[in-house]
Design a protein that fits this description.
alpha+beta, 5-stranded antiparallel β-sheet, OB fold (Dihydrolipoamide Acetyltransferase, E2P), single chain, 9-stranded mixed β-sheet, 2 domains
Length: about 375
């Protein structure tokens, strides 16, 4: 049985008489071998990851101590603030009530200040540069003073992951197939993650907009590599947002499969001893995030889909309609991309501007500029 140590991190209180904490599980020895960080529940109303992580912890518990060849850190619920938020009997865990900010946005971008601090100390030793940058990240995070409870939460999560070789943030969409969000420099190196999880799409961008957690962890490396082209700075953190299908895909069968996929991936990456078995022959291609056509509703009504998630779509194809329940008129929803329909709205009520469906295509779309993620 592997040794699991558990700690809690107390968050600053938002008001007198309240207290929240983040629970952290650790396996292996700090500073020995590669480090993997896995968290879930950052969007607190996205529940599949909570079940997946419990099955992953069970697999890790069953491994022998000597089989844990790296350091593995697991946060089984990364957002106690959002978990407590209910409004009129409905859970609302995506946005913080106090600021209306998205819990997976506005993570500090350390590239500028870290780059300034290490500029004169970088060398031709890639591993040495990685150690130097990680140490400076930790130092700067340790000196930051949060102003609010949610700032404190973001800061503590970044501290846990700042020196990780792998940082996985588990989420889900509404109705969706398994898919990933990754930094462009991480592909095709992350094909093993896509293969072990059975992802149907891997969406790539260096800057997606909004400063999500995965880019705060991974983006610093390609930003510094671009700033200092004369010294070797590798993309030292495989940071990804893993979308575990849809928000109703919460059951033990899927969760066991996903946990087993994560376990195989950690074996493949040298954190757990053992044979992960060959990758599947068919692995999705990486496609640009600005090649995703987010098909929005032009007006209100009832959504009626003609195509389902996982279907291959051709540009110009009608994937559904909006029914006007007053006039009976139907407005077609047309895809501007050819690719896979990987996610769609889960509720049939259409509202103006609501993302009805998302199609991942291989070519950038001219209308996709600015913030590439939905809010």
């Amino acid at each position: 049985m592997a040794t699991r140590t558990t700690e809690t991190i107390a968050l600053m209180a938002s008001s007198p008489g309240t207290a929240r904490q983040v629970t952290v599980h650790r396996y292996g020895t700090r500073g020995t071998g590669p480090k993997a960080y896995v968290q879930t529940g950052l969007h607190a109303d996205e529940l599949p990851g909570l079940v997946v992580v419990q099955h992953l912890l069970a697999l890790l518990d069953l491994a022998a101590d000597e089989a844990i060849t790296g350091e593995i850190v697991v946060v089984p619920h990364a957002n106690p603030i959002g978990l407590s938020q209910f409004l009129f009997g409905k859970h609302a865990g995506r946005y913080e009530f106090d600021s209306l900010g998205n819990f997976n946005r506005h993570y500090p971008d350390l590239a500028g200040t870290v780059g300034d601090a290490v500029a004169e100390r970088l060398t031709d030793d890639a591993a040495g540069n990685v150690d130097l940058i990680r140490a400076e990240c930790r130092r700067q995070l340790d000196t930051r003073v949060p102003k609010t409870e949610v700032d404190h939460l973001r800061l503590e999560l970044m501290k846990l992951a700042a020196d990780a070789d792998i940082a996985l943030d588990l989420h889900c969409d509404e109705v969706a197939v398994m898919h990933l969000y990754l930094g462009t420099p991480l592909w095709p190196g992350a094909r093993d993650l896509a293969g072990d999880l059975g992802a149907r799409a891997a969406l790539l961008a260096e800057v997606s907009g909004g400063e999500p957690f995965d880019e705060a962890m991974g983006g610093i490396w390609w930003q510094l590599a671009r700033r200092f082209p004369d010294v070797p700075i590798p993309p030292a953190c495989l940071s990804a947002t893993v979308e575990l299908r849809g928000d109703r895909d919460v059951d033990d069968i899927l969760a066991r499969e996903d946990a087993a996929g994560l376990f195989r991936f950690l074996q493949r990456r040298g954190l757990i001893a053992g044979d992960p078995a060959p990758l599947p022959d068919e692995i999705c291609d990486g496609t640009p995030l600005d090649g995703v056509d987010i098909i929005e509703c032009p007006h209100g009504g009832v959504l009626l889909f003609r195509r389902d998630v996982g279907d291959a779509i051709i540009s110009g194809e009608r994937i559904g309609d909006i029914l006007d329940p007053v006039t009976g008129m139907r407005t077609p929803l047309i895809s501007r991309a050819s690719g896979i329909l990987f996610a769609r709205a889960g509720h049939p009520l259409a509202r103006p501007g609501l993302p009805a469906a998302k199609v991942a295509g291989p070519k950038s779309l001219p209308h996709r500029r600015g913030s590439l993620l939905t809010q």
